[in-house]
Amino acid sequence: MGRVAALTGVTVRTLHHYDEIGLVRPSARTAAGYRAYAAADVERLREVLAYRRLGFGLREIADLVDDPATDAVAHLRRLRGLLLEQRDRAAALVTAIDRELGARAMGIRTTPQEQLQVFGAQLYDVIGSAYPATRRTEPRIAAQVWDALGDARTVLNVGAGTGSYEPPDREVTAVEPSAVMRAQRPAGAAPCVAAAAESLPFPDDSFDAAMAFSTVHHWRDPIAGLREMRRVARRVVVFTYDASEAGWRDRFWLARDYLPEFAALLTDWPSLADLTRAIGGRAEPVLIPWDCADGFFEAYWRRPEAYLDEHVRRAISVWTRVGPQAEQRAVTALRDDLTSGRWSDRNRDLVALDAAELGLRLLVA
Ligand SMILES: C[S@@+](CC[C@H](N)C(=O)[O-])C[C@H]1O[C@@H](n2cnc3c(N)ncnc32)[C@H](O)[C@@H]1O
């Protein structure tokens, strides 16, 4: 044990602990009868240590290394993907820090919004704890997603968050880069790998289907992420937003009348045609029910008072991304219009609708 500890750089105590909890048990015997690490144990220990270094918890690691469907080569491939991802993220952070240092040197202060926008997972490490308050499965939309998954038995859920749309009757593997979101997954939820869409740590065609719900707009490179989904799964299902049609923005009163900053968040966003092309599929509309259970940006289109609630807004990334000034201005204007009756006058036609078409789309390939 001492030699293995010296070679790996972990303490003998750690190795004892792994032995005690059954994570890595030395199975060979020395001539003197002491327990020793056989070649297979060393291989397992290396996997455990690598996953540990990537930030996985011991219980999560036990599930990963005990998975009979994953052999040593598959583990090495997955670990390689995860490490490359970590390297890319570190490089992106260094670039962002350099940019901010340069700006500060010139006396320019970056806004909180700019600081948070480095990339999606970081944003969710900041705002993620507010998420479960109002974000949950909307059964009618879930039915549409699950229907689109067809007869897929194994499903990869990318940008899984707390797993609101994971089908209960299939074998799900989740991918989620934000540690805060991973930690909020309910007990008994599908196993979750710390990785990002742009570099999925799985071999080609590993899953019957890959799904992504309300996450693509957070990815650093949506097209690369969608191609990755296409690579690892035979079927792809993505719930997203059609930003190519300015008409949708005008259709949703919140963006149109109170939060014009929403449009700026979409300037670099690929067109629906580009997104659909990346997976080689088609797009179908998703109507938002008037009493939508999942509190995403458009969910309260017929319940405008909801947007005055801080808890509702904190679980919607748009509000953090537009920054506190725009948020306060929009909320004050909306409150005034609700009090004066101006909102009702302007949006009279909505009361008669049970579901609204606000540009949300299900891409299916
Ligand atoms: C609005 S939440 C949606 C979560 C979940 N799909 C749901 O519907 O409840 C967006 C999620 O995307 C994740 N995310 C951000 N960047 C990502 C990336 N590059 N790859 C995969 N997921 C990412 C965030 O950490 C966050 O959990």
From TrEMBL:
Pfam families: MerR_1, Methyltransf_11
PROSITE patterns to which the protein is assigned, alphabetical: HTH_MERR_1 (PS00552), HTH_MERR_2 (PS50937)
CDD domains given in the database record: HTH_TipAL-Mta
Alphabetically ordered keywords of this record: DNA-binding
InterPro entries attached to this UniProt entry: DNA-bd_dom_put_sf, MerR-type_HTH_dom, MerR_fam, Methyltransf_11, SAM-dependent_MTases_sf
HTH merR-type domain mapped to chain residues: 1-67
GO molecular function, one term: DNA binding
Domain of life assignment: Bacteria
Entry-linked PANTHER family: HTH MERR-TYPE DOMAIN-CONTAINING PROTEIN, REDOX-CYCLING DRUG-SENSING TRANSCRIPTIONAL ACTIVATOR SOXR
Name used for this protein in its record: DNA-binding transcriptional regulator, MerR family
Source organism: Actinacidiphila guanduensis
